[in-house]
Amino acid sequence: MVEVLIIAGSKSDQHVVDKVEKTLTDLEVSYGFEVCSAHREPERLDELISQSDARVFICIAGLSAALPGVTASKTSKPVIGVPVESKLGGLDALLSTVQMPPGVPVACVGVDNGRNAAYLAKRILEA
Asked: Choosing a second label site near 61 at 20 to 30 A (CA), which of 13, 28, 80, 105?
């Protein structure tokens, strides 16, 4: 069993994933990692979410950054979004992550701030 499942929307997000993994390792939090696009692989994302025993999801995505919101729409577990800078200084991804409709909450950390996502996950797990 892993406590946190990290899902990145693209292999190009690895630089942010590395920050999350290092911090979770330092905090002694167990985690798993998958690359899965909400747009290109929606059925696979459904399977990852439904079959995961993780207590928290960290979703890393740039551009339209649909991954955190789609994940939150399919689970009642906490979802932390990490917007990735790829265009517009990451503002596009940031706004896509925080502007969720009522009933689909996503916690959001700063652009490329994988460390804070890991720290927040740890706090959620300790609550």
From this structure: 28
